[in-house]
Amino acid sequence: MRTFPKSLFVLAMVAGVIWAGGLRLEVGNPSANPEAVAKHAVLVVRTTACQSPEKTTVTATAEGLVDGNRRTVPLSVIPLGTPGTFAVVREWPAGGRWAVKMIATNPDYKNYATGVVVLTEKDSFDWAGVKHYYHAPTDAEVNAVLGREAVALAH
Fold first, then answer.
1. How many structural domains does the chain have?
2. What is the pLDDT of residues 83-119, one digit of tens each?
3. Distance CA 71, CA 119 (A)
4. What domain range includes position 145?
């Protein structure tokens, strides 16, 4: 019985963010967006439920395991014609296991950030394993997406 009030509280908070126009990121395949294809994007990311998407900034990094070492590569994020929609370009080396971490901020939401992490291996994205966060993803969360080897390196 004690979990019901907690569950109800969490549900009310999430519903409040959604109804208030909360900031959230969605990630997808660029093949459905001709503008993204023309810019050689490997991912398209867009804000949803945002009251002012034109003010949103998205940053991205590829964080990976190459030959047993952890690497971070900053990625180019290109605004597309639709406000709040961005193309992410591949700039990480071939080989290894990589997680693409994207973080969105918007001045209307003050210090709030939202993020998404997508695992990629052998030029293929794990669409079913996309992780959404209502904060900037932490190193521990990225390590969890990368798998056991990354978690072991962190300790």
1. 1
2. 999 999 999 988 888 999 999 999 988 889 999 999 9
3. 14
4. 23-154
DSSP 90: -
Q: Which residue has better confidence, 5 or 144?
A: 144
DSSP 147: -
Residues facing 71 on adjacent strands = 64
Domain at 133, CATH number: 2.60.40
Give the ranges where 30-98 is alpha helix by DSSP (H). 34-38
Task: Give the pairing type, strands 69-75 and 57-66.
Answer: antiparallel
- Residue 153 CA to residue 155 CA, distance in Å, equals 5
Is the per-residue pLDDT at 12 higher than 80? no
Asked, for residue 6, whether it belongs to a domain, the answer is: no
Read off the tokens for 86.
């961005």
What band does 121 get if pLDDT is binned at 50, 70 and 90? Answer: confident
Q: Tokens 């997406």 identify what position? A: 145
Amino acid at 1: M
Alpha-carbon span 105 to 46, nearest angstrom:
12
Residue 153 in this model has a pLDDT that exceeds 60: no
